Amino acid sequence: MSFAAAIRSAAGAARGRVTYDAPLAPLTWFRVGGAADALFSPADEDDLAAFLGALPREVPVTVVGLGSNLIVRDGGIAGVVVRLGGRAFNAIEVTADHSLVAGAAAPDAFVAKAAATAGVGGLAFLRGVPGAIGGALKMNAGAHGGEISDALVEARGLDRTGAVRILSNADMGYSYRHSSAPDDVIFTRATLRGRPGDPDAILAEMERITRVREASQPIREKTGGSTFKNPPGASAWELIDKAGCRGLVVGDAQVSTMHCNFLINRGGATAADLEALGEAVRRRVLETSGVTLEWEIKRIGRR
């Protein structure tokens, strides 16, 4: 079912850009997936609120950020895909009390750099997190001993009606790589708090994180973030390696030989190849270790 007519009606007064039958593969790190009925890039928060308020409730709304932790399935996405960008959503402002306000589209690495330059410690871990702040809020992203729940003061967003929602850290219901935030909230910015720090020491820590990532992860490939969550008391990559999945291939998708909790599109993979490869890995790990791996990469859309 196409929702194009309803979307066109709601988009009549939008100041942002609306693209119909919009290819989504170029927006993901894996470079796979079908098209969206419509892709909306709002001009600012007010524009997004007005659009959501005018959009009929039966039209699905999906949010896509930098696409680093995402597989869009080959059948594309029904309804509207919202993608934030531009100055209205990627600004980073350092404030008092070793805090900063970051737009949801601000890349995590940029937030880490802004914090370091201002002498705000405790946010260097964001240098090792692919993606943007909006996605980090949604999944409690983390790396190198830190996660967004350690720093979040409050998140601001809009619900499906276009109403502003302010959620505290406690409201987010955080756990490992998970939040209980309402599914219909589109985050627009977040207030993060760190601690006093020495800029040179923080930048040195970020450089160390960068070296570790480059040495251990296939970041120059068509890949995503970590494919599976670490089970309690175990490392996903070790279980995958033990199951003999390093280098495993389905179609043109492959388990990385460099870090086997990463999947790679070798050039011609489809979303179905990647998802089938991930499921094959899960089956083998269950057979060899009795552990059911949980996907960390989000898979959305029609098969």
Automatic annotation (TrEMBL):
One of its GO terms (cellular component) is cytosol. Its EC number is 1.3.1.98. Residues 32-219 form the FAD-binding PCMH-type domain. GO terms for biological process: cell division; cell wall organization; peptidoglycan biosynthetic process; regulation of cell shape. Pathway: Cell wall biogenesis; peptidoglycan biosynthesis. Its cofactor is FAD. The active site is at R177, S226 (proton donor), E296. It is found in: Cytoplasm. It comes from the Bacteria. Keywords: Cell cycle, Cell division, Cell shape, Cell wall biogenesis/degradation, Cytoplasm, FAD, Flavoprotein, NADP, Oxidoreductase, Peptidoglycan synthesis. One of its GO terms (molecular function) is UDP-N-acetylmuramate dehydrogenase activity. Pfam families: FAD_binding_4, MurB_C. Gene3D superfamilies: 3.30.465.10, UDP-N-acetylenolpyruvoylglucosamine reductase, C-terminal domain (3.90.78.10), Uridine Diphospho-n-acetylenolpyruvylglucosamine Reductase, domain 2 (3.30.43.10). The keyword Metal-binding does not apply. It is an enzyme of class 1 (oxidoreductase). It catalyses: UDP-N-acetyl-alpha-D-muramate + NADP(+) = UDP-N-acetyl-3-O-(1-carboxyvinyl)-alpha-D-glucosamine + NADPH + H(+). Cell wall formation. Belongs to the MurB family. This is UDP-N-acetylenolpyruvoylglucosamine reductase.
